[in-house]
TrEMBL record:
Enzyme class, spelled out: transferase
Enzyme Commission identifier(s): 2.1.1.72
A UniProt-annotated Pfam family: N6_N4_Mtase
Family classification: Belongs to the N(4)/N(6)-methyltransferase family.
Catalytic reaction annotation: a 2'-deoxyadenosine in DNA + S-adenosyl-L-methionine = an N(6)-methyl-2'-deoxyadenosine in DNA + S-adenosyl-L-homocysteine + H(+)
Highest taxon, organism lineage: Bacteria
Entry keyword set: Methyltransferase, S-adenosyl-L-methionine, Transferase
GO terms for MF: DNA binding; N-methyltransferase activity; site-specific DNA-methyltransferase (adenine-specific) activity
Parts of the chain that traverse the membrane: none
Protein name: site-specific DNA-methyltransferase (adenine-specific)
InterPro entries, A to Z: DNA_methylase_N4/N6, DNA_methylase_N6_adenine_CS, N4/N6-MTase_EcoPI_Mod-like, SAM-dependent_MTases_sf
S-adenosyl-L-methionine as UniProt keyword: yes
Phylogenetic classification of the source organism: Bacteria, Pseudomonadati, Pseudomonadota, Alphaproteobacteria, Caulobacterales
Limits of the DNA methylase N-4/N-6 domain: 68-365
């Protein structure tokens, strides 16, 4: 095989990709929540989105591209129970396509030094690894964590009692990503003592000998009591004779209480790393287990989580991920929010967060859980470990409906649920502008640079109106105009204006009216080997002031106008 041959995983429907509509988000203030007290370090702009998570991610792209430091996702494991409509081959294909489409958007949201952590089990982890190598690049795969999710053996298991899950870790750029050290445990520090009263403080020792060959490590050593030591057969001293004498003169060699033991090198606590290098095996004693996670949910939302979440993740597991991958203030995301553990842990640890979840439990489980975190009424999980006492808040968003809908004649028109402000924001999304309406210029709804702007109107513009706008824009700026129509002029007559008709300008950009790209396989049409497999979009949230509220201005179609 050629060294340049590229290995790829193939599956039915891999070549088919959804054309996602970049929706806008509407805040539902009924479910948003904020602490009554405010401290400088509290974050109130955290985002919880209820809606299809692929559409949500697409909506987040414009504002959060390259800004998320850590993504943790716990997608459906594809155990077979959720895929009863499909045979085995198509089952894997559907799952891979749905996850691939999400990974591609998630990658765009990661910062250049960011990382993504994906929890999986043996059903799909190895297929997923090959597919994720294509999305992120094999060189950006960091490692696979083995997490011990249960602590008792299941004697009824047919073959083996499964006790672990995997967490696959990818960086957007492995060369730029740096892992943090885990906090040192009190037990580890307690292993340092000071039996000889060394003024440099507590210490422990490392062996002098090792099996690695070292050409300068075969000399004899004489103890203070005259006993001679040589490296045991097949081993070598770790340091040269000159270096050993230097260490001994500095009091860094321990000969035992009677000065007659095999020498060991002192390692002082004051000089030790201020943390522990993380390993790839996380026992339940350190990172929690499934039963612990279920108990955390039940205590916060009595009864609600019993049937919804069979295998939630414990707060200690997410805490460990965030300790390794983030610092306070770094943005954290989870687009499969489940019971809301990622947001709860990020909140307690001083990390701003974004979560997306589709089901009713967004309101019956996640919101009540976060309210208790914010009010300081959640004594469980990592609360005591991080000293959490409450504070901060979040905003709750729903997805706006599709921008275009068909009229009675089957023609695509702007949805009647959109008012002028919503339309302007939606067009900014479609053309890559930041929505920021100006109080000074009626024609300025957003910008893509310091000199490039966008104006959205459902009116039909005349030559005189366009000329007036062109004169005001001036020679140093450019303006994209999205309007219903324009009359009495050529679109190229104004060098500082670009004119596009709506909805025609965006008609071929997206799949209109599609609201469900979910991972609930029963909602997908049955397919055969030749059929198209569609992916799934996600909608997202923006900051306060850039989202419409449910009771905002009336529809564009309420008033009698050219709109």
């Amino acid at each position: 095989m050629s060294a340049k041959t590229k290995l790829e995983l193939t599956w039915i429907g891999k070549e088919h990709r959804p054309r996602l509509e970049p929706r806008i988000l509407i805040e539902d203030e009924k479910w948003s929540y904020h602490s009554t007290s405010r401290r400088p370090e509290d974050r109130f702009d955290n985002v919880l989105i209820r809606g299809d998570n692929l559409l949500a991610l697409k909506a987040l792209e414009a504002q959060y591209r390259d800004k998320v430091k850590c993504i943790f996702i716990d997608p459906p494991y594809n155990t077979g129970s959720a895929f009863t409509h499909y045979d085995d081959g198509v089952e894997h294909s559907v799952w891979l396509s749905l996850l691939r489409d999400r990974l591609e958007v998630l990658r765009s949201l990661l910062s250049s030094d960011g990382s993504i952590w994906i929890a999986l089990d043996d059903n799909e982890a190895h297929y997923f690894k090959v597919m994720a190598d294509e999305v992120f690049g094999r060189s950006n795969f960091i490692d696979t964590i083995v997490w011990q999710k249960v602590y008792t053996v299941k004697n009824s298991a047919r073959h083996f009692s499964s006790m672990h899950d995997y967490i696959l870790v990818y960086a957007k750029d492995a060369a730029a990503w740096t892992r943090k050290l885990l906090p040192r445990s009190g037990e580890l520090d307690a292993s340092y003592t000071n039996p000889d009263g060394d003024l440099r403080g507590a210490w422990t020792t490392n062996a002098m000998q090792a099996r690695n060959y070292y050409s300068l490590g075969s000399y004899p050593i004489t103890s203070p009591n005259g006993r001679v030591f040589t490296p045991p057969q097949g081993t070598f001293w770790r340091v040269s004779e000159a270096k050993f004498r230097e260490l001994d003169a500095d009091g860094r060699v321990w000969w035992g209480a009677d000065g007659n033991n095999v020498p060991r090198i002192k390692k002082f606590l004051s000089e030790a790393k201020q943390g522990v290098v993380p390993s790839t095996f996380w026992p339940y004693s350190e990172a929690g287990h499934n039963a612990e996670a279920k108990d955390e949910v039940r205590k916060l939302v009595a009864g609600e989580g019993d049937d919804v979440f069979m295998t939630p993740k414990p707060e200690r597991l997410i805490k460990r991920v965030l300790e390794i991958a983030t610092e306070p203030g770094d943005l954290v995301m989870d687009s499969f929010a489940g019971s809301g553990t990622t947001g709860a842990v990020a909140h307690k640890m001083g990390r701003p967060w974004i979560m997306v979840e589709l089901g009713d439990h967004c309101e019956t489980i996640i919101v009540p859980r976060l309210k208790k975190v914010i009010d300081g009424n959640d004594p469980g999980g990592i609360t005591k470990a991080v000293g959490w006492q409450g504070g901060g808040g979040f905003r709750y968003y729903r997805m706006a409906p599709s921008l275009l809908e068909k009229d009675q004649f089957g023609q695509w028109v702007i949805s009647k649920s959109y008012n002028a402000e919503m339309l302007a924001e939606a067009m900014c999304q479609h053309f890559g502008f930041t929505y920021a309406p100006s109080a000074e210029h009626y024609w300025l709804h957003g910008y893509s640079s310091e000199t490039d702007f966008i104006y959205v109107t459902t009116n039909s513009l005349t030559h005189e109106q366009l000329q007036a706008i062109s004169d005001e824009v001036g020679d140093e700026r450019t303006l994209l105009i999205c309007c219903k129509a324009f009359q009495g002029t050529n679109a190229d007559n104004f060098t500082n204006l670009t004119i596009r008709k709506i909805p025609g300008a965006i008609l071929d950009r997206s799949e209109w009216g599609k609201d469900d790209y979910s991972l609930k396989i029963e909602s997908l049409p049955l397919i055969d080997d030749e059929a198209e497999v569609e992916g799934e979009p996600e909608a997202a949230a923006k900051s306060r002031g850039r989202h419409r509220k449910a009771d905002d201005a009336p529809s564009l179609f309420d008033a009698e106008s050219d709109a």
